[in-house]
Amino acid sequence: MQGRIVKGIAGFYYVYADDGITYECKAKGVFRKDKRKPVTGDRVTLDVLSEEERLGNITGLFKRDNEFIRPAVANVDQALIVFALTDPEPDYLLLDKLLLQYKKQDLPIIICFNKEDLGKEGAQEVVSEIYRNSGTTLMFTCAVSGQGIDELKERLKGKLSFVSGPSGVGKSSIINRLQDDVSIETGNISRKLKRGKHTTRHSEIIPIEDDTFIMDTPGFSKMDVFMDDEWELKEYYDEFYPYEDCRFKPCSHTHEPDCAVKDALNRGLISKTRYDNYSLLFSELKESHRKY
User: Fold this and answer.
1) Which strand (E) or helix (H) includes residue 163?
2) Residue 286, SS3?
3) What pTM value is reported for the model?
4) What mean pLDDT value characterizes the chain?
5) Is the distance from CB of 141 to CB of 171 less than 8 angstroms?
6) Could you give the CA distance from residue 4 to residue 22 in angstroms, rounded to a whole number?
7) In this structure, is the dihedral angle defined by the CA atoms of residues 203, 209, 210 and 212, taken in order, positive or negative?
8) Less packed terminus of the chain by CB within 10 Å, N or C?
9) For 84-131, how does the pLDDT look when each residue is reduced to its tens digit (9 = 90+)?
């Protein structure tokens, strides 16, 4: 029988199978031998051990359309990155790292800034200016009032979208708003650290409508960027594309003279926040690859 992993907890995998039943499964030892670990979203084959007790064993993994390290998920259609306009303040470097991870997999991306009701005057304009040419869809919501939720739901329709972002930005509150019959535990912001409590502890696929699913994932505050080398980085900055007629080729857009990207930056055509993050990540990747 075939199915899809909708949740994994402590070595147990919950597989929604072709017969419409969700089975609690263990993975066969062959996966450990091959150093392959099933993740939420995987399409699998399974043997049913007990239909009455809904128990089974995962016997095979299908080839993945895509896969991600953090969160560890597979076979998704698009990414929904959720940050807050305030409380906590947006960490643009973390956001850019997420964009790079998903762009590397050629995945459509929605950036959703939540807590619109708490944002300072002009906050929307600030983030819109930073990400307007990033090749993503930008949305604003308020999970408390429901503002923007219907528009977001329309963007998710017919797809499996996975949610990622820091803790405390309202991911679970948004998912609660998107559906009628499931309530996910939510947490408050730590006043001392200005970070949210990790209320989502595992990745789980949740149905929104018949053809629409969302994958809730644990929040986090740090992540690394994985690239073959530092030169690959610029391929995922859409705002650089119109301004790459540089004097030197290849151009890293960091230190070279007569760089068209830096000229566009100085003319206000490229976000300084985005460019500064690019320069920082370029240096970090260069240094890390030099060590190895």
Assistant:
1) strand 160-164
2) helix
3) 0.84
4) 88
5) no
6) 9
7) negative
8) C
9) 999 899 999 999 999 999 999 999 999 999 998 888 888 999 999 999
Share of the chain above pLDDT 70, in %: 90
Interatomic CA distance for residues 255 and 232, integer angstroms: 16
Phi then psi for residue 177, to 5 deg, are -70, -30
pLDDT, tens digit (0-9, with 9 covering 90-100), for 130-160:
999 999 999 999 999 999 999 999 999 999 9
The Cβ of residue 42 has, within 10 Å, a number of other Cβ atoms equal to: 24
Stronger pLDDT, 266 or 224, i.e. the higher one: 266
Spatial separation of the C-alpha atoms in residues 57 and 46, rounded to whole Å = 5
**At residue 24, what is the residue type?**
E
Q: Name the region of 92 (left: φ>0; alpha: ψ -120 to 50; beta: rest).
A: alpha
Are 220 and 214 spatial neighbours (Cβ–Cβ below 8 Å)?
no
What number of other Cβ atoms are within 10 A of residue 125's Cβ? Answer: 9
Q: What span, in angstroms and rounded, lies between the C-alpha atoms of 31 and 61? A: 9
The counts of H helices and E strands in the chain are: 7, 13
pLDDT confidence of residue 220: 64
Structural domains in the chain, sorted by start: 2-63 (2.40.50.140), 68-216 (3.40.50.300), 230-291 (1.10.40.50)
Whole-angstrom Cα distance, residue 247 to residue 254? 13
For residue 157, give Cα distances in angstroms to 85, 168, 212, 214.
Answer: 25, 25, 5, 10
Q: What is the pLDDT of residues 198-212, one digit of tens each?
A: 345 678 999 888 789
